């Protein structure tokens, strides 16, 4: 093949924390299936400093940057390498993958099939030992060939004897016992100290050992089927032997909602039957509903996601799921395990980005276009911290098509900054809660109200629309977001495709903005959230713009959650404000007049949203729709949560199928399609414009 040529060149190789990265000369030997490296090109005629067998290896581009990749050999040895640029990395990765595939397939062709393998390895083992242990010097080819015997041509292959399977079963029972002891030993470790039960390497060992035993049980089951077919003759035509569910009892830890057979309808809880029997949404009223803010009560829910909980117990399930995914795979249609869900819908998460409504309202109080743009940037950067519920990265519920979420915020007018430089409230979070309670007795003139509504307007692709307004200050924001999630190896990336529009009607200004990408990192250990990418904010009328960079952590060194940005006047190309810091802790704003302001997001006041009680919510409002899933997650009953979640998803699929059969289009409730975006049906800019026109006609 043209792609099987030998290639060579310099790459950086990571050695250890002390030595770091070093340039080494690498040679890909396609004929031998080897990756070798030397100190430099001049020493190429000498013995290689290191050699990896590529048969059975895994070549993985890193998601940390565009230059790094890893070569994981079947022996367990790993090379962490870095090319000079993305193009060179792609060249090496593609050639290595082709070579790896070629030699891995060659091993399968050159060894006898399952029915001609002897089980001498098993029969040689003692009662207490799993037989022959692998020597460190064994290469990948010899490792794959252990226990295989080549037979002279023409000799009949002996039929596998039952006692061989008994020996294998006995050895596997011993291995299962050892694996259980290993899990127990890890779980008995303390949660703090030098070596803890949450150690990353131990968690990986725990997950891979469980996955390995599951795979071995699958293989043993296939051998049993094959033995039965040899005893009774060939299997009937059309019969296939496929990978089955793990034979180790997984009742307590394989609960991802995708592979379970639930009880018959009569045995289901009434709440599940209710979820499945809700009428087709288009048959319900799709007329927009005016929500009275006076019916909403201050939210008392505080579901922080700081506990690993079931996630820590389900490592093998996550590993099982990851083994079925490919790099770059779209996760939109992948059913993820219930235990990784946080207790709120994605629509409510968008609302939580508005948890500083005083900063939002203060934008329009800026006396100049420059000040208003800076205030918007300040508000924008402070919104992401509260949008996350705790340090552990969990996934909000995927909204059902037609699902809606309503809430509002009230804040004393005295808390909203009017003059420059006083945007940030000095109240602590506890003081802010007291203030919000005091609002109950105030008159309407004493506080501002910000109303919020969100709706899932599309299922495939998953698109959400959300809208917020403050009528008193004649300002509103409209946005639509299409979430595209991809598997990136040891992390998951979510791209927020869409655009937002902030309208300040008192000034006739419109600000367009985008959203950063989000990444769930370390998904096999303690998952955490990272933001990345460049976003832009523009105001065409005033000529001011902002460019903000959310920096992902580099492979070696560097800070987490770093953000930098600048605000400039496009006409003169003058930078009027610079910002740096971390989006979830401390931000530093430096202005053109030399002044500097520091904002500690962990101490910034949070205004609790106001939500209608469940009994007053419609059947497709988020909290009522997902109430049984949320209650089950709070109780730690993953089985029950999975069952309720499955019922909702099955109902959505049935409704989608019915609409397709009857060619009935979906009817949105609050948002209308305009071009490539979605716009609230009654935005404030239309209401204010109509009122002004009517007033002019009256005059």
Tally of separate helices: 16
**What best-fitting shape do the alpha-carbon axes yield?**
globular
Reading off the top of the CATH hierarchy, the class of one domain is best stated as Mainly Beta
Give start-end ranges of low-pLDDT stretches.
113-160, 234-268, 276-285, 425-443
Overview of the molecule:
This protein has 699 residues and is α+β, with helices and mostly antiparallel strands. 30% of the residues lie in helices and 25% in strands. Helix 6 runs parallel beside helix 15. The strands form five sheets. Strands 11, 12, 13, 14, 15, 16, 17, 18, 19, 20, 21, 22 and 23 form a 13-stranded antiparallel β-sheet that branches. A seven-stranded antiparallel β-sheet has the order 4-3-2-1-7-6-5, with helices on one face. The protein is built from 16 helices and 26 strands.
Provide keyphrases for this structure.
Porin; alpha+beta; PH-domain like; 13-stranded antiparallel beta sheet; Oxysterol-bd_CS; 16 helices; seven-stranded antiparallel beta sheet; transport
List the helices and strands and how they pair.
Elements: E1 7-14, E2 21-29, E3 34-38, E4 50-53, E5 58-61, E6 68-72, E7 78-82, H1 86-110, H2 120-124, H3 140-144, H4 162-187, H5 200-232, H6 270-277, E8 297-298, H7 310-313, H8 315-322, E9 341-345, H9 346-352, H10 357-362, H11 369-387, E10 395-397, E11 404-412, H12 429-438, E12 447-458, E13 463-470, E14 475-487, E15 492-504, E16 509-513, E17 517-521, E18 528-539, E19 544-551, E20 562-569, E21 574-582, E22 586-591, E23 596-600, E24 610-611, H13 622-625, H14 627-634, H15 638-662, E25 671-674, E26 677-680, H16 684-698
Parallel strand pairs: 9-10
Antiparallel strand pairs: 1-2, 1-7, 2-3, 3-4, 5-6, 6-7, 8-24, 11-12, 12-13, 13-14, 14-15, 15-16, 15-17, 16-18, 17-18, 18-19, 19-20, 20-21, 21-22, 22-23, 25-26
């Amino acid at each position: 093949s043209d792609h099987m040529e030998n290639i060579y060149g310099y790459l950086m190789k990571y050695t250890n924390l002390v030595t770091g990265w070093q340039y080494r000369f690498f040679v890909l030997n396609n004929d031998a299936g080897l990756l070798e490296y030397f100190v430099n090109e001049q020493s190429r005629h000498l013995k290689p400093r290191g050699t990896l067998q590529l048969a059975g290896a895994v070549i993985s581009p890193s998601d940390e940057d565009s230059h790094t990749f890893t070569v994981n050999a079947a022996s367990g040895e790993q090379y962490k390498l870095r090319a000079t640029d993305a193009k060179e990395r792609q060249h090496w990765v593609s050639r290595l993958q082709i070579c790896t595939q070629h030699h891995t397939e060659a091993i399968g062709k050159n060894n006898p099939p399952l029915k001609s393998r002897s089980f001498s390895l098993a029969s040689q083992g003692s009662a207490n030992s799993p037989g022959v242990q692998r020597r460190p010097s064994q290469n990948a080819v010899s490792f794959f060939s252990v226990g295989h015997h080549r037979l002279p041509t023409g000799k009949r292959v002996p039929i596998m004897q039952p006692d061989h399977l008994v020996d294998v079963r006995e050895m596997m029972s011993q291995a299962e016992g050892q694996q259980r002891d290993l899990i127990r030993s890890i779980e008995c470790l303390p949660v703090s100290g030098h070596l803890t039960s949450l150690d990353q390497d131990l968690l990986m060992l725990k997950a891979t050992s469980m996955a390995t035993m599951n795979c071995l049980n699958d293989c043993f089951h296939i051998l049993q089927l094959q033995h039965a077919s040899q005893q009774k003759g060939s299997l009937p035509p059309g019969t296939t032997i496929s990978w089955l569910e793990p034979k180790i009892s997984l009742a307590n830890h394989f609960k991802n909602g995708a592979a379970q057979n639930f009880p018959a309808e009569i045995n289901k809880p009434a709440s599940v039957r209710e979820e499945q029997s809700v009428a087709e949404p288009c048959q319900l009223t799709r007329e927009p509903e005016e929500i009275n803010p006076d019916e909403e009560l201050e939210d008392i829910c505080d579901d922080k996601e700081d506990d690993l909980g079931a996630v820590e117990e389900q490592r093998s399930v996550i590993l099982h799921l990851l083994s079925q995914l490919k790099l770059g795979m779209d996760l939109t249609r992948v059913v993820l395990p219930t235990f990784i869900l946080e207790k709120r819908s994605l629509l409510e998460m968008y609302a939580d980005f508005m948890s500083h409504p005083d900063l939002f309202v203060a934008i329009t109080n800026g006396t100049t276009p420059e000040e208003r743009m800076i205030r918007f940037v300040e508000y924008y950067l402070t919104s992401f911290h509260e949008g996350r519920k705790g340090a552990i990265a969990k996934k909000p519920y995927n909204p059902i098509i037609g699902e809606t979420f309503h809430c509002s915020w009230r804040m004393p007018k005295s808390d909203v900054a009017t003059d420059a430089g006083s945007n940030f409230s000095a109240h602590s979070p506890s003081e802010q809660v007291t203030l919000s309670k005091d609002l109950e007795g105030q008159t309407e003139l004493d506080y501002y109200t910000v109303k919020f509504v969100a709706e899932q307007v599309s299922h495939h692709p998953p698109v959400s629309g959300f809208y917020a307004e403050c009528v008193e200050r004649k300002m509103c924001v409209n946005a639509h977001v299409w979430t595209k999630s991809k598997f990136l190896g040891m992390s998951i990336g979510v791209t927020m495709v869409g655009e937002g529009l902030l309208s300040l009607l008192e000034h006739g200004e419109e600000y367009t903005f985008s959203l950063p990408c989000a990444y769930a990192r370390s998904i096999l250990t303690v998952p955490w959230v990272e933001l990345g990418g460049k976003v832009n904010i523009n105001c065409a009328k005033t000529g001011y713009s902002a460019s903000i960079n959310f920096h992902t952590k580099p492979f070696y060194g560097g800070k987490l959650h770093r953000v930098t940005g600048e605000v400039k006047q496009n006409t003169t190309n003058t930078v009027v404000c610079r910002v740096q810091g971390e989006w979830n802790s401390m931000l530093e704003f430096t202005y053109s007049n030399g002044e500097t302001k520091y904002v500690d997001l962990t101490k910034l006041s949070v205004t609790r949203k106001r939500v209608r009680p469940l009994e007053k919510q419609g059947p497709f409002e988020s909290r009522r729709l997902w109430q049984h899933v949320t209650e089950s997650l709070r109780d730690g009953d993953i089985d029950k949560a999975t069952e309720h979640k499955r019922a909702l998803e099955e109902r959505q699929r049935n409704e989608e199928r019915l609409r397709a059969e009857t060619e009935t289009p979906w009817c949105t409730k609050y948002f209308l399609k305009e071009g490539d975006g979605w716009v609230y049906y009654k935005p404030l800019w239309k209401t204010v414009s109509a009122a002004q026109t009517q007033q002019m006609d009256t005059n």
